[in-house]
Amino acid sequence: MSLLIRSCAALLLTLSLPLAAAPMHSQFLPPDDLTLRDAEPEQQQLLQVTDYSVVVGAQRQSNQQPIPVTSPLMIRLKGKSLNKGATISQVLVNFDGESKSLKKPIYDDKSKTLTLFYPLAQYRVVIDLLRNETIYVQFLSYANGHIWADLHTGSTRAR
Fold it and tell me: CA-CA to 60 of 20 to 30 Å: which in 23, 30, 40, 107?
């Protein structure tokens, strides 16, 4: 009997150990051909989006000549954190129609805000997903400086 108890205790101990620290939604990451994600992420923020708002701004900086007029387009996402230790409270998705390259994703611990940058051409895709799917936002940062961020749906059955 004592062998059975020891075997059960060993099994319970094994099952209670943490698994390899892959990101919670790692199935949504693209292939890592350059092995940029070969280590455990230093930071992971995972949010399930529950609310969103669209902000179309207009600003005119009157102290510059010629006077630039800009109209930023942004979506503000709010939701609930899904992973242990996540502190994220909102995501700002900025759309840029003018730059040749996008800025890297930025997570600000102080404001608990993740800022993402997408080309303007992706706006309709993002809005369509927000209207029709459950959306998750994922942010991963690694010790080697690699950063990954995405908006993704959960697994959906084809119709």
Answer: 107
The pLDDT tens digits of the residues spanning 3-59 come to 555 554 444 443 433 433 455 667 767 676 777 777 888 889 999 999 999 999 887
Q: For 1-28, give the DSSP string.
A: -HHHHHHHHHHHHHHHSPPP---TTGGG
User: Which residue do the tokens 């109209």 mark?
Assistant: 71
Does residue 92 contact residue 118 with C-beta atoms inside 8 Å?
no
Contact 75, 55 (CB under 8 A): yes
Buried b (16+ CB within 10 A) or exposed e, 65-100: eeeeeeeebebebebeebeeebebebbbbbbbeeee
| Cα(25)–Cα(48) distance, integer angstroms | 11
CB count within 10 Å of CB 52 equals 18
